[in-house]
């Protein structure tokens, strides 16, 4: 299997008044048509890794990499016109909270149609039919009605499904999901993940699933990368998670309260300075 | 067993929408009681109703033997009951130092000896005196939540209302804050009423819990019952399955449409 995405020694730096902050410090991985999870705490650089691949890093940040290659295209050297044509078309991204990531003054249907017509030459009528079919594919009942609703008129779970529909309508090969279900209720979370899982499998997409929830990621992905302070501390097959070697990964797994295990006080992470080296 | 909080047939009505529909709950003094449910199930509304922040249209709330008015809460009430909110980024004043944040409840209640009390409160939540003159933007999420807890504890209440106190925090920080809450409860014999959507957190913290859905309590059970799977309502079972993470087999591909 040839990798679709190769990331080698990716670094993202933010110059600030008080010095340069290195958000991502030398991250390397490859991705085929599989589900890869990236896990870490706030500030570990997991979202910035995803954004760098998508090309959404703020302009004042400095990105360097030995290689940031998507299907033979060097993403760092690609002109912005080429990157625009990739974004949304071949690489798509699902963001955390549908309340903030959907356009509040545009109906859900028009937003989906906009994505489609940006990348493909289709008639308005055909685009509408495709958008409704896509809304049905994410298991929205009465898709024709939802098509005309505004984001504030739907629930969080429905909004996130609309977001997934919007991201998948152009048929991307690589999907980056940045905390796609963190803003949702636990029960709705599983529904949305189920839909996402089926679509990713059916269409043979590559998926990067970014989350702070190690348990959720390991139950969803094939492979998990654990990040700490801008670096990868461990890469592990999801099924082997119980045998994680790095103390940080073990600590993350251990500190979650679980039903039926009585541990008072809970074990807490003892952060070692050498982890961040 | 005396009841610290006793709620009887409470109804909260927002223009015809029943956010709480005849909810009754009794919490013993020194107990830790949990409320779980999905968004919109009314669990936060119940806390807000106790604190006087939601329009109560029927039913009674009794706290430490005193029946409360529908809306008005006096100072004596807030000396007994304090609340910790979900989002430490939104619940601390951005232009006040930690010192002022902690001084405010003392000033309101006319409590003297402010200085040693502030230092003791900071010490108790594990932050120390060096945090006293910082602003909230200079603190991490976990540190902010510690300040919010210190602010609630500084006037020595007997009941703490906790509205998703750790859901905005990372898993590793969550463990620290949960440990802190358990410790202060033990040290001060506090009564906790805790809302969370995470069954793991609630069973860890609470002895008994109530499952809420659409403004009603659908099931009451002990943490032990939950752990051993003695669950009657399918809704509670769904919540339990959901808390265990994603299982590919369980979510069978349902037909679209």
From TrEMBL, chain A:
How does the protein's chain sit in the membrane according to the entry? Peripheral membrane protein
Name the UniProt key words of this record, in alphabetical order.
ATP-binding, Cell membrane, Membrane, Nucleotide-binding, Transport
Biological-process GO terms, alphabetical: transmembrane transport
Identify one Gene Ontology CC term for this UniProt entry.
plasma membrane
Q: Where is the ABC transporter domain?
A: 5-254
CDD domains, from UniProt? Answer: ABC_NikE_OppD_transporters
TM segments? none
Q: Which PROSITE patterns match?
A: ABC_TRANSPORTER_2
* Pfam families tied to this protein: ABC_tran
PANTHER family xrefs: DIPEPTIDE TRANSPORT ATP-BINDING PROTEIN DPPD, OLIGOPEPTIDE TRANSPORT ATP-BINDING PROTEIN APPD
Provide the family line. Belongs to the ABC transporter superfamily.
Q: What is this protein called?
A: Peptide ABC transporter ATP-binding protein
Which organism is this entry from?
A: Pararhizobium antarcticum
From TrEMBL, chain B:
Record-linked PROSITE patterns: ABC_TRANSPORTER_1, ABC_TRANSPORTER_2
Topology with regard to the membrane?
Answer: Peripheral membrane protein
- Gene3D superfamilies, sorted: P-loop containing nucleotide triphosphate hydrolases (3.40.50.300)
UniProt keyword Cell inner membrane present: yes
List localization entries.
Cell inner membrane; Membrane
Q: Which PANTHER family match?
A: GLUTATHIONE IMPORT ATP-BINDING PROTEIN GSIA (PTHR43776:SF15), TRANSPORT ATP-BINDING PROTEIN (PTHR43776)
Annotated Gene Ontology cellular component terms: plasma membrane
Q: Which family does it belong to?
A: Belongs to the ABC transporter superfamily. Glutathione importer (TC 3.A.1.5.11) family.
Q: What is its main location?
A: membrane
Catalytic reaction annotation:
glutathione(out) + ATP + H2O = glutathione(in) + ADP + phosphate + H(+)
What is the protein name for this chain?
Answer: Glutathione import ATP-binding protein GsiA
Single GO biological process annotation from the record: transmembrane transport
GO MF terms listed in the record are:
ATP binding; ATP hydrolysis activity
Q: At the top level of its lineage, which domain of life is listed? A: Bacteria
Q: Which UniProt keywords apply?
A: ATP-binding, Cell inner membrane, Cell membrane, Membrane, Nucleotide-binding, Translocase, Transport
EC no.? 7.4.2.10
């Amino acid at each position: 299997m040839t990798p679709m995405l190769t990331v080698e020694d990716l670094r993202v730096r933010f110059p600030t008044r008080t010095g340069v902050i290195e958000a991502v410090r030398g991250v390397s991985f490859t991705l085929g048509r599989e589900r890869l999870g990236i896990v870490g705490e706030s500030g570990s650089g997991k979202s910035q890794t995803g954004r760098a691949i998508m090309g959404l890093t703020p302009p004042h940040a400095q990105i360097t990499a030995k290689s940031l290659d998507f299907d033979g295209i060097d993403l760092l050297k690609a002109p912005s016109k080429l990157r625009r044509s990739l974004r949304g078309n071949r690489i798509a991204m699902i963001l955390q909270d549908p309340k903030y990531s959907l356009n509040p003054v545009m109906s859900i249907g028009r937003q989906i149609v906009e994505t489609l017509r940006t990348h493909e030459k289709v008639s308005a009528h055909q685009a509408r039919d495709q958008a409704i079919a896509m809304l049905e594919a994410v298991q929205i009942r009465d898709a024709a009605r939802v098509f005309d609703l505004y984001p504030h008129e739907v629930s969080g779970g429905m909004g996130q499904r609309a977001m997934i529909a919007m991201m998948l309508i152009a048929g991307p090969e690589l999907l980056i999901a940045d905390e796609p279900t963190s803003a949702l209720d636990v029960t709705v979370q599983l529904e949305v993940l189920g839909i996402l899982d089926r679509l990713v499998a059916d269409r043979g997409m590559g998926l990067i699933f970014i989350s702070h929830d190690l348990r959720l990621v390991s139950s969803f992905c094939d492979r998990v990368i654990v990040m700490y302070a801008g670096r990868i501390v461990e890469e592990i097959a999801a099924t082997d998670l119980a045998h994680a070697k790095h103390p940080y990964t073990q600590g993350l797994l251990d500190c979650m309260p679980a039903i039926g295990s009585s541990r008072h006080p809970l074990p807490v992470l003892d952060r070692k300075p050498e982890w961040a080296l | 067993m005396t009841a610290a909080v006793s709620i009887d047939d409470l109804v909260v009505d927002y223009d015809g929408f029943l956010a709480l529909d005849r909810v009754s709950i009794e919490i013993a003094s020194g107990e830790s009681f949990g409320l779980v449910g999905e968004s919109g199930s009314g669990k936060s509304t119940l806390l807000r109703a106790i604190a006087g922040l939601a329009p109560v249209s029927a039913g009674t709330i009794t706290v430490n033997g005193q029946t409360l008015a529908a809306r008005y809460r006096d100072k004596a009430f807030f000396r007994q009951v304090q609340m910790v909110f979900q989002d430490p980024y939104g619940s601390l004043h951005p232009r006040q130092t930690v010192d002022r944040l902690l001084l405010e409840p003392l000033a309101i209640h006319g409590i003297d000896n402010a200085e040693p009390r502030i230092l003791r409160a900071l010490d108790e939540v594990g932050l120390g005196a060096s945090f006293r003159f910082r602003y909230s933007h200079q603190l991490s999420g976990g540190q902010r939540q510690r300040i919010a807890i210190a602010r609630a504890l500084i006037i020595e209440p007997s009941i703490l209302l906790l509205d998703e106190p750790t859901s905005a925090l990372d898993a590793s920080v969550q463990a620290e804050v949960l440990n802190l809450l358990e410790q202060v409860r033990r040290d001060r014999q506090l009564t906790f009423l805790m809302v969370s959507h995470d069954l793991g957190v609630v069973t860890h913290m609470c002895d008994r819990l109530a499952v809420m859905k659409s403004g009603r309590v659908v099931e009451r059970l002990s943490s032990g019952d939950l752990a051993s799977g003695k669950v009657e309502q399918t809704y509670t079972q769904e919540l339990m399955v959901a808390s265990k993470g994603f299982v590919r087999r369980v979510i069978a591909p349902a037909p679209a449409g």
